[in-house]
């Protein structure tokens, strides 16, 4: 049986020689594997193609008040959870299979424990809706289990899906930005936004689009090609960079630049050390540089960058709304801030402070919603989960998570209901190949 090193001891693991954990060898049910792979593919397609705004446009009240509890959870979550249930049910020893998953993903196990603590705080103490936790945190966990358990052929089938959907999202964003017509209405709560020029495309909110697009660019910059040919990478990155302007993503664009410089520095060092690149890559890069120079000059002359540049000068109060978070924190009694503030007080303070954008900071929003104590414990579990994903991916995945959380700091992001974290986890595990794919397969 195969064995692999782990960092933490699991209460369900079986020790092997030299302190390693030994995974049970479980036979694979080919029919069940096909069903699971199909469900994962469908779930990924739903994640990429059906945004929160699209669900609201379909009348499911995903983010709007009212509606049933079932409509508050993304359809992709149901499909991905079903895939995991089929995987476990098809196993001849489900408990051994579950124990093996925990042994492989120790950090994920501890994250689930802290997630249980957060769920208890939400339901028993705060009396708040718990559906955001399902899409935001449970979905990435289940998706990580299925993708780490997937065979390389299945990952190779998922990679083109991600590439095609990101390209379609970017092209749709450019179309929406130029024509002013949206695929789905831009909805904020129960209010339809009509005075915002930013594109929403397939992924929904412009900030979500900006974060996911920037993450995709970073993965491409650090070699995460998936099934894409190297000569196509410069064109794919250029298309996504153009889409960032259409999304008006200031933070995602600004924070992307230092990561691109790091990637360029790494590429320069490789050249100095004698690494050779295929002639097709050089030709593609040269052609793209010429086309980009001409395109930037033309669209700049036509005013394509004007509205994006204006957002750095006039953000309609978005930056001041983030500063107001500190005023709200200072006004909340410390006894409540540590254990969980009364949300009626937080809402009243928002109104008094004149904030129109909500709690636009991941960390402070968590503190003001669930309390500092529970939030810090949960963040420790979240860090363990991210380290788990990095442990099974390439070293460059560090860059992906650092960028993601830097951008997330500037918006509500994970403190609200979202599927963006699940997509980031999926991109890392599909594009930045798991290093232990052969040894950690539970099949």
By secondary-structure content and strand pairing, the structural class works out as mainly alpha
Instruction: State the order of secondary-structure elements, H for helix, E for strand.
Output: EEHHHHHHHEEHHHHHHHHHHHHH
* Counted beta strands: 4
Distance between the termini: 12 Å
Helix content: 55-70%
Q: What percentage of the residues does DSSP assign to strands (E)?
A: under 5%
Are there runs of 5+ residues with pLDDT below 50, and where?
Answer: 1-27, 436-443
Overall spatial form:
globular
| Strand order within the widest beta sheet | 1-2
Q: What would you report as the Rg, rounded to the nearest angstrom?
A: 23 Å
Overall pLDDT level: 79
Biggest beta-sheet profile: 2 strands, antiparallel
**Number of domain units:** 1
Q: How would you classify the quaternary structure?
A: single chain
Number of helical runs? 20
What is the topology?
Elements: E1 3-4, E2 21-22, H1 30-49, H2 52-57, H3 75-89, H4 94-104, H5 106-126, H6 131-149, H7 152-179, E3 187-188, E4 191-192, H8 206-221, H9 233-247, H10 250-272, H11 279-301, H12 306-313, H13 318-331, H14 334-339, H15 343-353, H16 362-370, H17 372-391, H18 397-408, H19 420-431, H20 437-440
Antiparallel strand pairs: 1-2, 3-4
Keywords:
mainly alpha; 20 helices; 443 residues; two-stranded antiparallel ribbon; 66% helix; single chain
């Amino acid at each position: 049986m195969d064995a692999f090193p782990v960092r933490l001891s699991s209460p369900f693991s079986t020790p092997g020689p030299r302190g390693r954990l030994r995974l049970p060898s479980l036979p694979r049910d080919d029919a069940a594997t096909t069903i699971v792979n199909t469900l994962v593919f469908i779930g990924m397609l739903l994640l990429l193609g059906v945004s929160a705004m699209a669900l609201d446009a379909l009348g499911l009240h995903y983010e709007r008040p009212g509606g049933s509890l079932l409509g508050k959870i993304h359809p992709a979550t149901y499909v991905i959870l079903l895939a995991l249930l089929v995987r476990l049910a098809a196993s001849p020893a489900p408990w051994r299979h579950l124990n093996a998953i925990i042994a492989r993903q120790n950090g994920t196990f501890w994250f689930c424990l802290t997630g249980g603590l957060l769920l208890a705080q939400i339901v028993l103490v705060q009396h708040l809706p718990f559906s955001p936790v399902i899409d935001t945190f449970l979905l990435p966990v289940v998706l990580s289990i299925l993708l780490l358990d997937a065979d390389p052929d299945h990952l190779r089938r998922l990679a083109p899906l991600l590439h095609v959907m990101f390209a379609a999202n970017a092209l749709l964003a450019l179309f929406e930005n130029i024509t002013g017509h949206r695929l789905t209405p831009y909805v904020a709560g129960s209010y339809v936004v009509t005075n915002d020029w930013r594109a929403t495309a397939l992924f929904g909110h412009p900030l979500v689009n900006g974060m996911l697009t920037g993450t995709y660019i970073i993965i491409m910059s650090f070699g995460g090609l998936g099934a894409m040919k190297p000569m196509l990478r410069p064109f794919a990155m250029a298309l996504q960079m153009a889409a960032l302007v259409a999304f008006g993503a200031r933070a995602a664009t600004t924070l992307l630049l230092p990561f691109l410089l790091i990637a360029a520095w790494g590429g320069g060092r490789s050249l100095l050390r004698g690494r050779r690149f295929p002639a097709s890559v050089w030709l593609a890069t040269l052609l793209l540089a010429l086309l980009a120079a001409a395109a930037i000059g033309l669209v700049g002359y036509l005013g394509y960058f004007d509205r994006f540049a204006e957002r750095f000068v006039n953000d309609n109060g978005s930056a001041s709304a983030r500063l107001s978070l500190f005023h709200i924190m200072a006004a909340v009694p410390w006894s409540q801030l540590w254990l969980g503030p009364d949300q009626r007080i937080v809402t009243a303070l928002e109104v008094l402070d004149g904030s129109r954008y909500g709690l636009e900071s991941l960390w402070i929003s968590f503190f003001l919603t669930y309390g500092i104590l529970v939030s810090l414990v949960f963040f420790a579990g979240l860090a363990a989960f991210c380290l788990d994903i990095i442990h099974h991916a390439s070293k460059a995945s560090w860059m992906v998570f650092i960028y993601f959380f830097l951008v997330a700091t500037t918006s509500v992001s994970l403190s609200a209901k979202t599927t963006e974290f699940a997509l980031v986890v999926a991109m890392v595990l599909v594009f930045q190949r798991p290093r232990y794919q052969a040894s950690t397969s539970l099949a």
